[in-house]
Design a protein that fits this description.
The structure is a homodimer.
Chain A: H1 23-38, H2 40-74, H3 80-89, H4 98-106, E1 108-110, H5 116-131, H6 139-154, H7 174-193, H8 196-207, H9 213-237, H10 267-299, H11 304-328, E2 332-333, E3 365-366, H12 368-373, H13 377-385, H14 395-412, H15 422-444, H16 451-467, H17 471-481, H18 487-502, H19 508-515, H20 534-538, E4 546-547, E5 549-551, H21 552-561, E6 566-572, E7 578-585, H22 586-595, H23 637-640, E8 643-645, E9 656-658, H24 663-673, E10 677-681, E11 689-692, H25 693-696, E12 709-711
Parallel strand pairs in A: 4-6, 9-10
Antiparallel strand pairs in A: 2-3, 5-8, 6-7
Helix pairs in contact in A: 1-2, 2-5, 2-6, 2-7, 2-9, 3-5, 4-19, 5-6, 6-7, 7-8, 7-9, 8-9, 8-17, 10-15, 10-16, 10-18, 10-19, 11-14, 13-15, 14-15, 15-16, 16-17, 16-18, 17-18
Amino acid sequence: MVRWARSAYSKKSDGSSVESLDYEVIENYAYKEEQAQRGKLYVGYYVVVKWFFALLIGIGTGLAAVFINISVENFAGWKFSLTFSIIQKSYKQQGSGIPEIKGYLNGIDTHGILLFRTLVGKIFGSIGSVGGGLALGKEGPLVHIGACIASLLGQGGSAKYHLSSRWLQVFKSDRDRRDLVTCGCAAGVAAAFRAPVGGVLFALEEVTSWWRSQLMWRVFFTSAIVAVVVRTAMGWCKSGKCGHFGSGGFIIWDISGAQEDYSFEELLPMAIIGVIGGLLGALFNQLTLYITHWRRNYLHKRGNRVKIIEACLVSLITSVISFGLPLLRKCSPCPESELNSGIECPRPPGMYGNYVNFYCGKDKEYNDLATIFFNTQDDAIRNLFSAKTIHEYSAQSLLTFLVMFYSLAVVTFGTAVPAGQFVPGIMIGSTYGRLVGMFVVRFYKKLNIEEGTYALLGAASFLGGSMRMTVSLCVIMVEITNNLKLLPLIMLVLLISKAVGDAFNEGLYEEQAHLRGIPLLESRPKYQMRKMTAKETCGNQKVVYFPRVVKVADLISILRSNNHNGFPVIDHMKSGETIVIGLMLRSRVLVLLRSKVDFQHSPLPCDGSLPIRHNFSEFVKPVSSKGISINDIHLSPDDLEMYIDLAPFVNSSPYIVPEDMSLTKVYNLFRQLGLRHIFVVPRASRVIGMISRKDLLIEENEDSSTVELQSTNSSAM
Amino acid sequence: MVRWARSAYSKKSDGSSVESLDYEVIENYAYKEEQAQRGKLYVGYYVVVKWFFALLIGIGTGLAAVFINISVENFAGWKFSLTFSIIQKSYKQQGSGIPEIKGYLNGIDTHGILLFRTLVGKIFGSIGSVGGGLALGKEGPLVHIGACIASLLGQGGSAKYHLSSRWLQVFKSDRDRRDLVTCGCAAGVAAAFRAPVGGVLFALEEVTSWWRSQLMWRVFFTSAIVAVVVRTAMGWCKSGKCGHFGSGGFIIWDISGAQEDYSFEELLPMAIIGVIGGLLGALFNQLTLYITHWRRNYLHKRGNRVKIIEACLVSLITSVISFGLPLLRKCSPCPESELNSGIECPRPPGMYGNYVNFYCGKDKEYNDLATIFFNTQDDAIRNLFSAKTIHEYSAQSLLTFLVMFYSLAVVTFGTAVPAGQFVPGIMIGSTYGRLVGMFVVRFYKKLNIEEGTYALLGAASFLGGSMRMTVSLCVIMVEITNNLKLLPLIMLVLLISKAVGDAFNEGLYEEQAHLRGIPLLESRPKYQMRKMTAKETCGNQKVVYFPRVVKVADLISILRSNNHNGFPVIDHMKSGETIVIGLMLRSRVLVLLRSKVDFQHSPLPCDGSLPIRHNFSEFVKPVSSKGISINDIHLSPDDLEMYIDLAPFVNSSPYIVPEDMSLTKVYNLFRQLGLRHIFVVPRASRVIGMISRKDLLIEENEDSSTVELQSTNSSAM
């Protein structure tokens, strides 16, 4: 528990002093430590721990995925009885969790999302819901699980359950924690789909708002570890120890044997698939939005019991439909079997595969609806993707399944169970894709067209139309199907479906985040911001200052009078002019007020030589907690008469913008750097210096004179 | 040719006025246009053109790749005779071009890199050098070709060759041009390796310093177009119209039939491959650095003739070695052929494949050194990667090849021919990979180990050790070999080799960029920046101001007295105080001085009602040109006595930082936003307002009160 030297604002010209308690201080602090006590070793230790944690996240998420898979395959009978009691104690609003994680990485900490009990709830909840056969997948929860593991590691365990360890408490800045959570997200996708590169790209494209190339490497490492862990577990399970898990191999739905070639005429039906995907995806987003809205405002206000009844009801309906509908469907006779295809019809009892004999009268018959409906989702998708099974499904069955499953997916999304939208999306998409494929086969009468290929494209198009990802989705689709030759087609279908979907609404996660009131900053500034200046944005909102040395009673009354989170601190120079010495955070003031150790009797600034009496970690708000409120502070009348000098605790150089800067520029600054507060200041009266590229190149380049260089006129000059 | 209204600085509170001529002005300008003349249509047109250009880049780069491939396969005889005359007229320093493109996207315009004649030189140069059998690849030049096509489109053609079109001149800001060049880079990689996703990631990871998610989508689109173009051309070529091109199919080195499984014991030799890759890669970077240095300082100073002689000499040595060495090697007897493997020994004459009979005495013999050496690079790699050919190569041959080819690659890199480093890197890596594989086969005595798999890992490790890419390289390796199952192994090998290489030096492109004096800003600020403040960085360097209304003679003398590129402009308020009204660029001043239309007789500010007499495009410097110099300006004595009001031309809100901000923060600001100049200003005396996240969310969220939110303490507060 190291303490650092107090240095007042006025002495800070060396830049390494206590600026604030944001991440740079940590680094300065680490730097000071390094000089003072442990030398370069400490920095090395810090880096090693970062990588070690990335390793642990990989292992942890991989193991969680394996555990869930094994449980789903083997203990599907558990279903809701045990799991609901756990879910109840964990984070209340379940669902996919991805909008909240997206929010966290965008800069908003939703209460309760990254706790230990959320982790446990997610693991058992997804076993229950996926094993129970609901129309949802386990990949959303796995992303959340990865993020939880990362966050718990980052803050050194869970204090509430006494699982915390001093040794682990290395990361005290939110930036490091956020980096870990990004690793966790990638690990989740990598574990869910056994798609390590897809995981990296998912973290890059969908989740994080803020990216550095060093982080990319660490995320990549985490994903690779997940791949190795999952693969090792699968190898270990091969001998049949873990039930069905692992039988698919590392690639979940291997269609490498599918259509190798395509002709120009096929581009039209493929474009149609893209359009359908965009339309159905946008519709899905809109319907889930309405239903979630209704659910929040009417249903869930009646308490937790209603949530559980609802989930059970949905589960019951799902079971009835997936068992009942196939019963109503007549069985079809088996096709003439090709000896080399290796596909038996009907499939042998107790095995997984195509051509399910479901209460069929004759021996050589199968029920095509049961083949999709009365199967695990993984197997249903494998069947839909399968090549060399032309005419397995009738259009009527596929259409029935599409309508029913689409409705079930819409209704299930947003119930109080952990839900992923990838697998249901793939189910929906591959169904209509296969439908289109059937018509193509009939229309073009060519034999080398495989319906399974169209099913794959359909799956890509629906996911593109609903989630609006491009690169990561593309890579995930390739990684889970092991068919690189279809990559250009997947790319084109995705582009079309995303474009069509974007014409209607935003992506699924963004819509859900809006609905839950998570204020995501989009990557593109709004169009009307061009006409606005920074000053106009602040409007007439009065700026509430803290003086440098402030009476405790005044501090309390200022905090009570508004709900701002950041306050400028001003000081008076000897000439009487005021000067802004920095930014003070509400949370930090509350910590100071609660500890009381910095109170002083005199209204004069402290001289800067006293050691600060605070441990750094006191100022760090635990993730997902509510932090201290002003109502938690209890002060005696004597305390209220004391003073406090804020200078050692301010962030002495927050980012500033001139008053007439256009809001577009401000927005880019805010989002690219992940800021929380920007000071709008008057136009400067003079310039002390200019910094240009050459000032930032500290290393000397001996040959720099030999090439003629001209700066490109960069984005924002 | 639209002109926009002059509005003086003092009237600019609406924020949409003429700030400067950087990209935001363009957008404001477009916005004004939209209101004034064409409505929303113009904005739509702008977006459509962006996409259309992305399409053109894709098609252009794809066709260039096809043209080069066909030419290399068929006209290898041309070699240097024709091509050198073209190279001489094009951009002088050839080589890979990637360091320069990297520099351009990082914000530095090297003279001559993106011209029409560079494009032509690159195309014919790479045909000559690759077709001539030098130890280099065509992928570096293809990246450069993609970037050239993009840049030429962006500035509306080449003025010099009268290929320019008014219609194409839509993009007037450097930001849009830079985005196009990013698309071009991705297109180049996608075309070279037929690896569209790899192209996107290459652009993301290696080339661009600055990334937005909108851009990602467009880059993705360009890559998809390239894939479709290349694939279509290959389909058209299948009938044998284009020689050998296209025979490999869309995946260049398909090894999908290789080793499917691996055991734990194999991880050790694989890790060894990673370490070797790191060591050899770092050594390669270091050797090429020394040689390039020597070449620049001694050899190339003697003129172009020396360059050509050098290239011919290298070519001659390469030919002698690749023909001569196999002659010295004894032939081996063919292995007992397995009927199902489909590999004939020796290969039939006129075909491509394994087991080359090269002056062998007997019929059933082959020369293993000739199989690698006396072959096109593509085929040599295919042979090295090939499975089911255990014991094809002797350790002696592989070692000979490794040493010779490594030396040739080092020597060839940096000659005056367009060179890519990917293919040679794959050659080198797969050779030692296969060597290790041979020992593994011998040591573990397991039959399911394929030497080809180790060759692939070796290739990945050498590229990782030399170029230090991770994600994009990984995806490229998977895309060119079509073997997803090896992905986790490739990832681990890459991580090891990158880590080992990083211990010695920087990546190949960074080292070369340093050597050529391209001042790249790395993604991570230097460690010592933590101790420095913005003010210290500026040092005692005096700030040179322009007054708002300035005498032309003074302007000239200020410009002559220093070589700064940006100048603060100050004005005097009625109270006598000075105020900084913005930033003026040297290039813009020079344009004003040359055109003379804004000269005025009175030293008083103009009243802001006159229209500006400049077309916007006058201020845009063409890419790769030197721009105007102060020596190009010729003014009469009368002109020198005139005045000019700079206010309408300044960037009125450049980014500012307070004097005591730590340099780490400044660096992040500079790099993340791609800036050229930052003003260091004194601490503010007051704060006009605070901007926080909620001020930037212009849309209302009706439900935002229902969830408890707390901001995460973001990176830089």
